[in-house]
């Protein structure tokens, strides 16, 4: 074994590596939200993270690897967004799995979906804007991965883009306006 490999740090401690959402232009908007709104967002996103992780684990055990990867991406980025919204975790609640996980927006089947109704309009708008930025960034990363023949990463980034779009629609009352929609990538 090469001794120099073991002298490297295991993980980066840079904030934008630990939470890639900090790189997005809409991330600083969370700091301007009132404490109560940020706490509500943390509770909602922690619930989404726990539910999505439980779904991913169940799908993985049943051999549904592709769907498990999507739900795992949901859990990871819900956790990133939760830590961006508020640094302290919300108390863990029992997580009952949904009966159906299909349809136009499978996030609505998660147990935490009812919490989205209680979020203030400002907090919902900040989260939706962050998710639309994430969706656009993930689509760019997916296209770049396909162009460099990295199909597993392209698939992962496509899942992240899909999740971000679902999450943006999850917290919004209506469809985004033309100005809020990410620009389509040229093929």
Notes on the structure:
Keywords: Plasmid. By secondary structure, the protein is mainly α. The chain has one domain. It has 6 helices and no strands. It has helices at residues 3-6, 15-18, 35-61, 65-85, 121-147, 151-171. α4 (65-85) packs across α6. It is globular, with a radius of gyration of 17 Å.
Overall outline: globular
- The total count of helices amounts to 6
The termini sit apart by: 44 Å
The share of residues in helices is 55-70%
Helix vs. strand class:
mainly alpha
The SSE string, one letter per element, is HHHHHH
- Average pLDDT, rounded to a whole number, is 76
The largest sheet, given as strand count, sense and whether it forms a barrel, is:
none
Report the uncertain regions.
173-187
- Domain count: the total is 1
Please state the CA-atom Rg, rounded to the nearest Å: 17 Å
Instruction: Please report which band the strand proportion falls in: under 5%, 5-15%, 15-25%, 25-35%, 35-45% or over 45%.
Output: under 5%
Number of strands: 0
Task: Chart the SSEs and their pairings.
Blueprint: H1 3-6, H2 15-18, H3 35-61, H4 65-85, H5 121-147, H6 151-171
Helix pairs in contact: 3-4, 4-6, 5-6
Keywords: Plasmid
Brief write-up:
By secondary structure, this protein is mainly alpha-helical. 56% of the residues lie in helices and 0% in strands. Keywords: Plasmid.
